Structures are given as structure tokens and as C-alpha cells.
Amino acid sequence: MKKRLLAASLLVLALGVSACSSKQEETATTAATEATTGTEETTTEAETSEEETEEDIEEDYIMGYITAMDGDILTVRIDGLDEEHDYDISDADVTLEFPLSIGDMIEITFPAETTDDPVPAIAMEVLESETAKNTDPSVEAEILASDDDTITISTDDGDYTLVRSNAYVVGTISNGETATITYLGDLDDDAIALKIVMEDSYDTPEAEISAFKGTIVQIEDESMVLESAQGDFFTFVSSELDFSAHTEGEEVTVVYTGSISVKDIPAVEIQ
Predict the structure, then answer these.
(1) 120 pairs with which residues across the strands?
(2) pLDDT-above-90 percentage for the chain
(3) Which residues are CB-contacts of 256 (< 8 A; sequence separation ≥ 6)?
């Protein structure tokens, strides 16, 4: 009888210990789940808060002209106002085609309520580039055909034929090869090829030169007028060059700076 009572007591004790252990495990699991859920909720709240902060930033913008540059700090004279401000574009979304230069007209977007100096720019876009004004357009293309008078090229926008009688050529023109062609006019309307640089000559000093080949029709003390094969006239000017060393009717190549589309083209050398 005593043995039966002892066995029953041991069984009750074992069941109690098992129930207690199970309850502790359940409590621990519940606590761990709540902790994980709490962490996820905290992370989600932080991300949401950050997104809301970004969305809540009010933006303003100005248009103006660059009057000075110091690294990523631009001094801008606001269009229509007689005042200047500094803007930091180091973290801005910048849109431009040519390198920035003094005189560029730009649009800058910035936080509306900022009191920082310089003003931190959110975005900047060049509306009018001084470099572009003084640079003739160019296109990289595959050469389809070429002779002494014309060159036919293939670009992403289509095929075009340009007059090449007056072009300055760097490298050997080969059909099927890539070249960069600097031109004057509209590609759709018999543009004049001013310079043709073959791809294998891109890194040569000659590729950096702007030059025009034409026939001299007029010579003055500080100017020389060249005629193209199409009958267009170009006036090159310089106070340093001796234009009188040449004669009318002579074919020469004039090295120049800037754009050939301006009225008086600065000449730096006559070849």
C-alpha cells in the first residue's frame, strides 16, 4: 500500500514539473515574439518617419547667372534682382552638357526654409551654357562613304551627308570606322564638316585643334577673309599674325579658337 502511495506521489510531482517547464517555454517564446514584433514596428516607424521627412521638405528655386566658382560653391546673381548668393552643389542632382563656366545661366532648386550659407542645392540645371555658345557642334558617327567633296555618316538619329571640302582631317578616313565630326549648319541640310577626327586619333594633340581650310579672298592689316567651297565667307582676326605674308587666291588652313559661327573668328596660326 505504501509503495502504491509513493508511486502516485512521484507521478503527480513529475506531471507538475513538466507543466511548469512547458509554461516557462511558452512564456519565453511569447516574450521573444513580442520583442521581435516590437523591433520590426520600431524599424518601420523610423523608415516611415524618414520618408515623411523627405516628402515634407518644401522646395524653392531661382534662376540666375554664375559670377564666381570655388569648387562646388557657386556664386549666382539672381535673374531680375541685384543680389548674389552662394550655393553648394556638392550633393545636388546636376544636369549639364558642357563644363560649368562663369556666365552660365542656371536654375537651382533648394530647401525653401534653409538659412544655411552657402545654400545647399537639391538640384541644378544649366539653361544656357557659355561654353556651348563658343563651341561648334559635333557628332560621333560611323563613316559610310567619303570622297574629296562629301562624307556620309551614320548616327543613332539617321544617316547624313556633309560637305567636307574645307574640313580639317585628323587621321586617315576609312569607311566603317568611327569618327567625331565637328560641323557648321544643320545635319539635315548639307552641313559643312569643319573637322573630322578618326577614333584612333582622339588622343593626339592635333585632335584638340580647330582649323578651317579655305581660299583667301581679302586681306587687311588684322584680318583675313576665307571663302569655302560653297561660297560662304569667314573672317579671321588677329593682332599678332602677319596676314600680309599671304596673297589673295592662296589656299590656307587657319587655326582658330572658339566657334567659327561668330562674326570675327580669333585666329592663332596660319598653315
Answers:
(1) 88
(2) 62
(3) 210, 211, 212, 236, 265, 266, 267, 268
